[in-house]
Design a protein that fits this description.
Blueprint: H1 6-59, E1 65-66, E2 69-70, H2 74-84, H3 95-98, E3 99-104, E4 120-122, E5 125-127, E6 136-147, E7 160-170
Antiparallel strand pairs: 1-2, 3-6, 4-5, 6-7
Helix pairs in contact: 1-2
């Protein structure tokens, strides 16, 4: 048997390397993009939770001015806080689709209060306003769509996630000198 010349051995080794790379590239690429996809979802979930928490913290102050802009209602001011804290994922053009601000009376924390239910008496206190002291404010981001950055064939094709977050707090007493809260 004749020995294989050196130039043929190198060529054979190069072909094997190319085949190995071709077979390992797809799983490696899927792993890297999967890590990026799940990291982005985790980041956005935390970001949205922070944005609604900041909106709730702002709501309990009854302030209508945020970043030098005065808003006509407390809901608009809270939405501006959420927009500012969402790094551009929530914008003024889509805020009404995803962000909601609801008020609850202390006797019914499962159904948002409406103006048609007021005035009413709860535990001896007359509630005249949705955002009256003692009521609960809930700021939420609901059903924000997020599609996978790199969808793989036959792996959740055309589907994505709906992200959301919610924060609640009890409205504090009105600021000194105020007798009625601003419009919700």
């Amino acid at each position: 048997m004749r020995p294989v010349p050196a130039y043929k051995r190198k060529r054979q080794g190069g072909q094997a390397l190319a085949v190995e790379m071709a077979l390992s590239f797809l799983p490696f690429f899927a792993l890297i993009t999967g890590i990026a996809d799940f990291s982005m979802v985790t980041f956005m979930s935390g970001l949205f939770q922070d944005a609604v928490r900041e909106g709730t913290r702002f709501a309990i102050t009854y302030n209508l001015t945020y970043n030098g802009t005065t808003y006509s209602s407390q809901t608009q001011a809270v939405q501006a806080v959420v927009i500012n804290n969402s790094l551009g994922f929530i914008t003024s053009s889509n805020v009404s689709n995803y962000v909601s601000v609801n008020y609850y009376t202390p006797d019914n924390l499962s159904t948002p209060a409406t103006n048609s239910q007021l005035p009413k008496t709860v535990n001896g206190v007359v509630i005249n306003y949705l955002n009256q002291s003692g009521n609960v404010v809930a700021v939420s981001i609901q059903s924000y769509p997020w599609n996978w950055m790199v969808p793989l064939p036959n792996f959740m094709p055309g589907t994505g996630l709906n992200l959301g977050a919610m924060s609640l707090d009890v409205l504090q007493p009105l600021p000194i000198g105020e007798s009625t809260p601003p419009s919700p």
